């Protein structure tokens, strides 16, 4: 039931792009993306609702393909501040349970 | 605006001891939840509440109790601590939007070690 995130880790140079994927074996109502820096609490990035919509925030955007039951997070022209672990949380419907992936660790080097 | 406040920040327990982790929010959120995060892993839901007087189990509820007597507070009780409960515990709250959970506001976490 836990969504599968890929890759597990990625190392980039500042300015490079990255894509993080989140897929589920079950139908999804929404996908939530959070970033967590070491020793801190997760911080909200965005929520995508079923309907195939794409949302964006600064140079971070995401898509949600309901039919494929997957979401992708796109980080464009990565900055040092983007470093951290990215988690997707999947929400299936009406049970108020957000199930989290294992995370993707993103390391940005100058 | 304090947001979500968790206490204590750190705690060391001996096996078999009991304790309560406190969580309070001042945003009038109906939804509150407790997660545990083990090293290198994601968050696992322990218990959650959709309003005062209403609680339900998450993925890993064994060994933990909760109650929700007010909208603001959602304490987590460890009944008899075990080394397997060594983890970082996060409390989170949200104002559900429509049929989905909204943005989760997290507390700063409680690092619990059971020896």
Question: What is the topological layout?
Answer:
The complex is a heterodimer of chains A (110) and B (115).
Chain A: E1 4-6, E2 9-13, E3 18-23, E4 30-36, E5 43-49, E6 54-57, E7 60-65, E8 70-75, E9 84-91, E10 98-100, E11 104-109
Chain B: E1 4-7, E2 10-13, E3 19-25, E4 31-37, E5 43-51, E6 54-57, E7 64-66, E8 76-78, E9 87-94, E10 105-106, E11 110-114
Parallel strand pairs in B: 2-11
Antiparallel strand pairs in B: 1-3, 3-8, 4-5, 4-9, 5-6, 7-8, 9-10, 9-11
What does this molecule look like?
The complex is a heterodimer of chains A (110) and B (115). Chain A is built from no helices and eleven strands. Chain A is mostly beta strands. In chain A, strands 2, 4, 5, 9, 10 and 11 form a six-stranded mixed β-sheet that branches. Chain A has a five-stranded antiparallel β-sheet with strand order 1-3-8-7-6, with no helix packed on it. The model of chain A has no long low-confidence stretch (mean pLDDT 88). Chain B has strands at residues 4-7, 10-13, 19-25, 31-37, 43-51, 54-57, 64-66, 76-78, 87-94, 105-106, 110-114. In chain B, the strands form two sheets. In chain B, strands 2, 4, 5, 6, 9, 10 and 11 form a seven-stranded mixed β-sheet that branches. Chain B has a four-stranded antiparallel β-sheet with strand order 1-3-8-7, with no helix packed on it.
